[in-house]
Specification:
The protein is α/β, with parallel strands linked by helices. The chain is about 40% helix and about 15% strand. The chain is built from 25 helices and 24 strands. The chain binds 3-O-alpha-D-glucopyranosyl-D-fructose (OTU).
């Protein structure tokens, strides 16, 4: 087949790597033959000479392999042996903007002790490649993939940070925006200048005929600020812009786009990036008459990239960012009709939504039904579990799941928006609606975890009892995030209960995007109080740190095995169990009610043969009766011994 013919040539070129590494590369090329060729044939088989394309992409791969620094080749070697490196229960992620956390990349290096103290082993730095000047959708409008935002530092700084992290046994994740570039990116500028090669990098239409046809079935991502999916550009025509008008969608039907992005991925891999977050992956392929999301070809693109990247940089992992309907989530981890290596990691958006839903309704039935229906993920992959990120929360509650527990889906979604924007009577949450879409009734929600858990309101009211309740709620939610299975992500500031940023709209460029309310700058004064056990910060920080420490010791929390959601016998309590193949067993219980509850012994005997022990839990948990007594918003982690 196509790649086989290239092998002698490749073998010749990789000789300089020495016989052991050279042959290992050939083995990877052969091993991933199908993973590479099948998707490329499907994507580009019509109209492209596949032999030429194969040679071009394999050349890119070999160039990257030859340029790969020795320290990274060593990591590759380790990870080829220990391919479940990202599945360990010691994995704990921290998500932050370099500038908001520390100022710039060199200063991030000075804050690594802080992260180590929290038990963090994985650092996701929000978009840091050079964005366009002016509004840039938080850095998701990239003007140069090979340069760091000069306000944050240089590529050298990034490499040095990666080196420091590796030295501490930590890994680094950065974003790669695949779906679009900034209008200011040299490719877009060349297209604008009339260069036909780069004109074909984008989806440009001479008039409204096709845009109108597509828009009949296209949802709007930013209906408030950027309605429609096309932007008229003088001298070019109608350019596809799914997100903001300055974010031009790339045309992935063009194999040159594929090759250019492959090169970009490998360039970043060679700078020491361990995990690439593939932004907006569901949008890569458009098809008239559909919503142009989750198309088969979008998956094939990721699969082909993965196959090729593995040949040159086997230590790199893909985290696919697909915030989609629950049924679709697992496909981004390669769970199709058969298994196709795709993302190593993906966000468990369903868990996130269900945690907030349970908190608002004090009822876990919907969560149990929805989480039970999530399909198994392939053994070599892992979820990223999280409570908050830099984006808004969209209420991905499937109609089927809602009806199955007697809820009207539309009214439940409306209830959640009312609750978290604080307009529902008695709500403790202080979020805001993001991008209200009158057409669909969608109202997504912005706000920090603390604000949505009631801490902002309680502090504003000076109500100690309410503060106590909010802290319990926040820790309850994180207790599930840290134990549900996968890599937990801690969003910067949540460890201190940082409130919504009251100044978010002061910045001209942010004024129309209230997601900035939950992207506050780090409050290092608040962080100073983290060792004061009586302070709010001290309580949250030590609670979350404790979860990381305990988690690292629990074999059953290793990713790569499924989580079973059990019937807790109590509508307020989420019960979930995990088992490691060596037999280690775990049960998590989380009470979403403001009253204490008693969980019967049945759920314990369902999971454990002997009486389990408490590994970690909120104050007031009691195991002295036949079952488990949980206080209001109480939680507990139990294990076999
Ligand atoms: C992502 O989000 C980023 O996380 C956002 O911060 C960006 O604005 C956006 O891409 C554009 O680069 O629709 O409302 O299923 O949920 O890609 C945010 C994936 C988004 C989408 C996601 C997107």
């Amino acid at each position: 087949m196509i790649l086989d013919e290239l092998v002698p040539d490749v073998r010749d070129r990789v000789k300089v790597l020495g016989p052991i590494e050279g042959e290992a590369l050939i083995a990877r090329l052969e091993q991933h033959h199908l993973d590479i060729v099948e998707p490329l044939e499907h994507l580009y088989g019509d109209g492209t000479d596949l032999a030429i394309l194969a040679r071009a992409v394999v050349d890119v791969v070999v160039d990257a392999a030859l340029a790969r620094p020795e320290a990274l080749r060593l990591l590759d070697r380790r990870r080829e042996i220990d391919h479940g490196w990202f599945q360990r229960s010691r994995m704990v992620g921290y998500v932050c903007y370099a500038d908001r956390f520390a100022g710039d990349l060199p200063s991030v290096r000075e804050r690594l002790d802080y992260l180590a103290e929290l038990g963090v082993t994985y650092l996701h730095l929000m978009p840091l490649l050079k964005p366009r000047a002016g509004p840039s959708d938080g850095g998701y409008a990239v003007a140069d993939y090979r340069e760091v935002d000069p306000r944050l530092g240089t590529m050298d700084d990034l490499e040095q940070l990666a080196g420091d992290l590796h030295h501490r046994g930590m890994s680094m994740c950065i974003d790669l925006v695949l779906n679009h570039t900034a209008a200011e990116h040299p490719w877009a500028q060349a297209a604008l200048a009339g260069d036909p090669t780069y004109r074909r990098f984008y989806r440009v239409f001479p008039d409204r005929t096709q845009p109108d046809a597509f828009e009949r079935t296209l949802p709007e991502v930013f209906p408030d600020t950027s309605p429609g999916s096309f932007t008229h550009v003088e001298g070019l025509g109608w350019v596809w812009t799914t997100f903001e008008s300055f974010q031009w969608d790339l045309d992935w039907t063009n194999p040159d786009v594929f090759a250019a992005m492959l090169d970009t991925v490998l360039f970043l891999a060679n700078k020491g990036v361990d995990v690439l977050r593939l932004d907006a992956a569901p949008f890569l392929w458009k098809r008239e008459g559909t919503d142009s999301q989750n198309q088969t070809e979008a998956h094939l693109i990721v699969q082909a990239l993965r196959g090729l990247v593995t040949v040159a940089a086997p230590g790199l992992a893909f985290k696919v960012e697909a915030i989609v309907a629950p049924d679709q989530l697992v496909t981004y981890l390669g769970a199709h009709e058969g298994y196709r290596p795709e993302g190593h990691l993906a966000y468990n958006n369903q868990l996130m939504v269900m945690l907030w839903s349970s908190l608002a309704s004090r009822d876990t039935r919907l969560a149990a039904a929805a989480l039970r229906r999530l399909k198994s993920i392939p053994p070599g992959t892992a979820w990223m579990t999280y409570l908050r990120g830099h984006d808004d929360i969209g209420w991905a509650v499937s109609d089927e799941d809602a009806w199955s527990v007697g809820l009207d889906p539309a009214s439940h979604r409306a209830f959640l928006s009312d609750f978290f924007s604080g307009s529902h009577p008695g709500s403790f949450a202080r979020g805001e609606v993001f991008q209200h879409n009158p057409g669909t009734g969608d109202r997504r929600i912005s706000g920090t975890a603390a604000a949505l858990s009631g801490l902002d309101a309680a502090r504003a009211a000076g109500d100690e009892e309410q503060v106590e309740s909010a802290l319990r709620r926040l820790l309850l939610m994180y207790s599930v995030v840290y134990s549900f299975g996968g890599i937990p992500l801690l969003y910067m500031g949540d460890e201190l209960g940082l409130p919504n940023d009251p100044h978010w709209a002061d910045d001209e460029e942010h004024r129309t995007d209230n997601r900035w309310m939950h992207r506050p700058p780090m409050d290092w004064d608040a962080a100073e109080r983290r060792h004061d056990a009586t302070s709010v910060e001290g309580r949250i920080f030590s609670g979350i740190r404790g979860m990381a420490t305990t988690r690292a010791r629990l074999l059953a929390l290793r990713a790569g095995a499924d989580t079973t959601v059990l019937d807790s016998g109590n509508t307020h309590v989420l019960a979930y169990a995990r088992r490691h193949e060596r037999g280690a067993t775990f049960l998590g219980l989380a009470n979403f009610s403001d009253d204490p509850v008693e969980v019967g012994a049945d759920v314990l005997t369902e999971v454990f043969r002997r009486r389990p022990v408490e590994r970690l839990g909120s104050p007031g948990v009691s195991l002295t009766g036949p079952g488990v007594r949980l206080p209001a918003w109480g939680w507990v982690w139990l294990s076999d011994h």
